């Protein structure tokens, strides 16, 4: 059974910048993501029989700090299957988020899980299967679009069956910044 751990990213299809992006790609047959925006922290192709990953995830997530990310980059890449992905990313990944993700991945590997690929922080916005468009042209279009920096605190984490139900969900804790006294 394939599973994955995702941290939800609260963007909306009708956000003005996203509408402008879709207009920027007018005439190109992009299948735009309409909801369920997230960062996949780990994708598990195979979990050994009898292994419950929920205690492992709880160990890491129950005390984890919610990352604040500023999404400030658009780009595109090609998957192993040849599909193009238009995605949102950040120029700076907070160290505590990267450490959390790597620790979870390492513990899953130690438990015998087969994990797909290395971690690459991205939020899928659209997919394209039109092979008449070259990746350099697609990347040029993404990079010519001026995205406003989108800062957000990511709290909602779900462990799910691939294309299926949620197995475990939690919220990461927000760090409160106290105001300085006058």
Please characterize this protein's 3D structure.
There is one protein chain. This protein is an alpha+beta fold and 182 residues long. The protein is 23% helix and 31% strand. Helix 2 runs antiparallel to helix 3. The termini are far apart. The mean pLDDT is 93.
Topology, element by element:
Blueprint: E1 3-8, H1 16-24, E2 31-32, E3 38-46, H2 54-61, E4 68-71, E5 73-78, E6 84-89, H3 95-110, E7 114-115, E8 123-128, H4 135-143, E9 150-153, E10 156-161, E11 166-171
Antiparallel strand pairs: 1-3, 1-10, 2-8, 3-7, 4-9, 5-6, 6-8, 10-11
Helix pairs in contact: 2-3
Estimated helix fraction:
10-25%
Q: Provide a count of the helices.
A: 4
Order of helices and strands: EHEEHEEEHEEHEEE
Mean pLDDT: 93
Which percent range describes the beta-strand content?
A: 25-35%
Number of strands: 11
Shape: globular
Biggest β-sheet description? 5 strands, antiparallel
Please give the order of strands in the largest beta sheet.
7-3-1-10-11
Radius of gyration: 18 Å
Are there runs of 5+ residues with pLDDT below 50, and where?
none
> SS-based structural class?
alpha+beta
Report the span from N to C terminus: 56 Å
